[in-house]
């Protein structure tokens, strides 16, 4: 089931569109600036030389997920739901 | 994750059998995936910036920020200095007189004998310079030929109208 959905998302290009939409929304609402400031704190704490991508991902992901505004999340989910519903109807 | 490519029809039948609960959880999954993708992108961006040393470029040190803080006081400019009234004076390179800056350009035009009708006046002045003490007309330098000029024009006009 999941693979089928994934395939559809990729084939239609919808996944790329969704990602782009989310990125734009997060820049618009200031999420990105907030996260960047947070990243800076982490980098300062760890030292510029010792930062790895894995560190950043581990530190940022929970906070990043939590900080996404509800409105943005709702918009995304609505769009995904519509897409899935469309796919089932065809 | 390795995906086994499904035929379109197969995928459709699979999706057809979806219940609303499943739809909800699937949507959540897709959202999670997309959000993680975006966060990962941000991580790459920041990591790259760190390694290139451009992450902290827009920050300045505290001391310099204190030093160049904008001053907001009455009677001072943004640098904290008291505005001083400067006496703008220039020295004419031609005749070495002190002049107010606002009168420098008209003076120079006449003094050096350039401009519309000044060459004539300048040459006249050079011719007269032996007789007239030049320091006297220092004070009303801007006007020293104005009346002359007017009379001249008036004379010309009246002579034209007479004819």
Automatic annotation (TrEMBL), chain A:
The keyword Protein transport applies. Its main location: nucleus. Keywords: Activator, Chromatin regulator, mRNA transport, Nucleus, Protein transport, Transcription, Transcription regulation, Translocation, Transport. Signal peptide: none annotated. Pfam families: EnY2. It is found in: Nucleus, Nucleoplasm. Component of the nuclear pore complex (NPC)-associated TREX-2 complex (transcription and export complex 2). Component of the SAGA transcription coactivator-HAT complex. Within the SAGA complex, participates to a subcomplex of SAGA called the DUB module (deubiquitination module). HAMAP family: ENY2_Sus1 (MF_03046). Belongs to the ENY2 family. Involved in mRNA export coupled transcription activation by association with both the TREX-2 and the SAGA complexes. The transcription regulatory histone acetylation (HAT) complex SAGA is a multiprotein complex that activates transcription by remodeling chromatin and mediating histone acetylation and deubiquitination. Within the SAGA complex, participates to a subcomplex that specifically deubiquitinates histones. The SAGA complex is recruited to specific gene promoters by activators, where it is required for transcription. This is Transcription and mRNA export factor ENY2. It comes from Limulus polyphemus. The lineage of its organism: Eukaryota, Metazoa, Ecdysozoa, Arthropoda, Chelicerata. The gene is LOC106476009.
Automatic annotation (TrEMBL), chain B:
It is found in: Nucleus. It comes from the Eukaryota. A zinc finger (SGF11-type) spans 90-111. Belongs to the SGF11 family. Component of the transcription regulatory histone acetylation (HAT) complex SAGA, a multiprotein complex that activates transcription by remodeling chromatin and mediating histone acetylation and deubiquitination. Within the SAGA complex, participates in a subcomplex that specifically deubiquitinates histone H2B. The SAGA complex is recruited to specific gene promoters by activators, where it is required for transcription. The C-terminal SGF11-type zinc-finger domain forms part of the 'catalytic lobe' of the SAGA deubiquitination module. This is SAGA-associated factor 11 homolog. It comes from Limulus polyphemus (Atlantic horseshoe crab).
């Amino acid at each position: 089931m999941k693979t089928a959905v994934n395939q559809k998302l990729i084939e239609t290009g919808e996944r790329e569109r969704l990602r782009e939409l989310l990125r734009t929304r997060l820049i618009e609402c200031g999420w990105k600036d907030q996260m960047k400031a947070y990243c800076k704190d982490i980098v300062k704490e760890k030292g510029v030389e010792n930062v790895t991508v894995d560190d950043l991902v581990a530190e940022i992901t929970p906070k990043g997920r939590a900080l996404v505004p509800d409105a943005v999340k709702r918009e995304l989910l609505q769009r995904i739901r519509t897409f899935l519903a469309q796919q089932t109807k065809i | 994750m390795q995906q086994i490519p499904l035929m379109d029809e197969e995928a459709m039948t699979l999706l057809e059998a979806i219940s609303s609960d499943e739809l909800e959880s699937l949507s959540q999954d897709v959202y999670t995936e997309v959000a993680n993708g975006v966060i990962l992108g941000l991580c790459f961006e920041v990591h790259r910036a760190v390694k290139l040393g451009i992450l902290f470029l827009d920050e300045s040190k505290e001391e310099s920020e204190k030093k160049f803080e904008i001053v907001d006081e009455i009677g001072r400019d943004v640098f904290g200095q008291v505005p001083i009234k400067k006496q703008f004076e220039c020295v004419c390179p031609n005749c070495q007189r002190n002049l107010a800056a606002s009168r420098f350009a008209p003076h120079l035009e006449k003094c050096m004998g350039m401009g519309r009708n000044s060459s004539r006046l300048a040459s006249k002045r050079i011719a007269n310079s032996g007789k007239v003490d030049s320091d006297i007309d220092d004070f009303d330098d801007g006007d020293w030929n104005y009346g002359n000029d007017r009379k001249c024009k008036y004379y010309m006009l009246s002579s034209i109208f007479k004819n």
